[in-house]
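Supplementary Data S3. Sequence and C-alpha cells for construct A.
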Amino acid sequence: MSLRIGAVVLLSLLSVSAISAGLGAAAEYAGHAGKGKALYVNLCIRCHGAEGKGNGAMTFTPPVADLTAPAAQNKLDATLLKTIHDGRKNTAMGAWKFVLTEEEMRDVAAYLRVLGTGANRTFP
C-alpha cells in the first residue's frame, strides 16, 4: 500500500510540474497585440482590411480570409502562426517567414485575436 501511495504522489508531482512548464511555455508563446497592430497596419491591411474582414484594397481568387470569422478565430494559435509563417497554398497568402521574426509573428497573431473581438483598441 505504501508503494502505491508513493507512486500516486510522484505522479501528482510530475503532473503539476508538467502543467507548470506548459503554462510557462504558453506565456512565452503569447505576443504583444499593440506591436502586432503596428505590423498588421503596415503589412496585412492591404489584403485583410482595417477590420480584418478580408475587404482590403486588393482582391483575390480565392478571396482573402476574414480574420474575424469563427473559421479563423477558432483556430489554435499554433495554426495561425503556421499560416503566417508558411503562407497558404493556392491562395495569395504568402510566407512571412522571410520578413517577420518569430516574435513579430506572435505579435500579429495576438492582434488577430483582438480583431476577432470586434474591439477597436488603442494599444500602449
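Construct B, processed identically:
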Amino acid sequence: MRTNPCTVEIRPLSIRDEALAVLRFLAVVYALLFLGVWGRSAKGGTAAALFPFQTRFRDLSPTDQRMFRQVGEGLVEALLLRSVEGEFPSAQTLRSDGVPPFAAHPLDDGAYRWTLDVDGNLIRYHGAATLNRNSFLIVIAEPDPRAPDPSHRAMRSIDSLHRRLDDGTILDVGIWMRAGPPPEPISALPMTQGWSQIVLAGDMR
C-alpha cells in the first residue's frame, strides 16, 4: 500500500525575526558577561559610600539577589526589543515570550504582577509583590531629543547604570526595590516613596 508523502512548507525568516535572532544571541552573550560582573561585584571590592536611597547588591537576601538577576535578564530582553521595534515591549509581551521575571520562575509563581508605564521619555516596569516579597522596579530614561546629555555623547564605556542601543543611544537605567506592594502611582523620584536603588561595587560614587 502506497502512502502519500508528507509535504512540509519551510518559510524563510522575516527580516524582523532574523534581526531578533541575531540580537538575542548577542544579548545572551552580554547577559552572561554582565552576570559575571554581578558575581564579582558581590564577592569583593572595597567599601564605598552609598547615597541614602541606595542598597548594595551583596547585602541583599539570596531571594532578592536571585530576583535582581532575573530583572537584569528581563531588562536585556526589553532593550533588545526596543532596538528592533522602536518601542519598549509590554509586560504581557515579555511574559508571553517567557522572559524572566515577567514569566515567573517556579519559586516566584504568583509573587509578582508586572506592568509597564510610559511617561514621555521615562519608562518603568514595576513588579508589585503580591506575596510576602519585596517589590521591584526597572526605571529607564531615554534621552530628551530636544536636549541631549553631553555627558552621554562623551561616554566610551558603559556601566551597569547605562545601556547603549543599537543606534548608539545611551539610556540611564536603574533597578529599585521596596518592601511590600508599591504605592500607586509611582513617583518619578522613587526614592521619595521608600524605593532603594540596588547598586554594584563599581556603581558606588
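The radius of gyration is 19 Å. The chain has one domain: 15-203.
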